[in-house]
Amino acid sequence: AIKELNIPLAYNIRFIMGTDEENGSSDMKYYMSKQKMPPYVFTPDGSYPVINIEKGMIRLELSADFSINEDSAIISLNGGKTINAVPGLAYAEIKGVSSDRILKTADKLNMSVTFDTEQNSDITKITAKGTDAHASTPETGDNAVTALLALITALEPDNSEIFRYIKALSELYPYRETDGFSCGIKCNDEKSGALTSVLSVINLDKNGFSAKNDIRFPVSRSCDDIISIMKNTAADKSMNMNILLEDEPHYTDENSEFVKSLLEVYSEITGSDEKCIAIGGGTYVHNIKGGVAFGAEFPDENNNMHGADEHIKTDSFLLNAKIIAAAVIKICGE
Fold this sequence. Notes:
Elements: H1 26-34, E1 42-43, E2 46-47, E3 51-54, E4 56-65, E5 74-79, E6 85-86, E7 89-95, H2 99-109, E8 114-120, E9 123-129, E10 133-134, H3 144-155, H4 161-172, E11 188-189, E12 193-194, E13 196-205, E14 208-217, H5 223-236, E15 240-247, E16 250-251, H6 257-270, E17 277-279, E18 292-293, E19 296-297, H7 314-332
């Protein structure tokens, strides 16, 4: 549109498209190893008005091998598919515990996750159904994995090594807790808000278990701060810990001319006078100095981001195009 209207620009515009933002942005790492980034970078990879703060991120795995080859009542426990999401489903198989006892115990715990059982001889399969959500906003979901851990802990089907590890995980990640308090990492600051923590994936059988944890932390903390605490926490529970990802927080000064220009454009077109915001999620500019997210989701708009039926309305799409074109002209126009 800018070219068709023959609007003169003082600087070149570079359009960079990637496909790996949800899995670590390896595409951008490769690109930046080959090309120098422009002095001003924004990505429509988040929300309006401007996201200038992205929390730090740590993804870790806790595990243990079961040393005792014993006949445990707990046969398996599995839940979650991706580390960066609150798991909406989890399953367990338990021997020697009736469906009636399981459901009565669940009722006493008064959790919003629902439980179904399926009896096959002396083995009962438990299905926990919660609500999926993005790991950056765990309070909007209902964690089926932590609910199932709480239920099995309350059932106390035996005193096996397997059960003791399930109980330990439930103590570290209590149902409905999303601030990392029980792991000893709870913290917050005024600029970026509170730490969030999600136990998102678990796989457990008679040989051992693996559990994955997604942590988003404020700009006032570092990866080393959080990791050192989690190492001690894991050691106290006789668990191994493996770091899968560590990413320091991202911050761009809200008073920079670049950011102020983007806010002015947004205000001029929408008539809304907004300020910069901080998020727990990561965008394509997380590791780009001075970069910000600008769009594409508007405040109070629900596009089911990262969920079923993710979409954008035609009116919002066209308004995005108008805002981004205006931003390009303001920043790069003659």
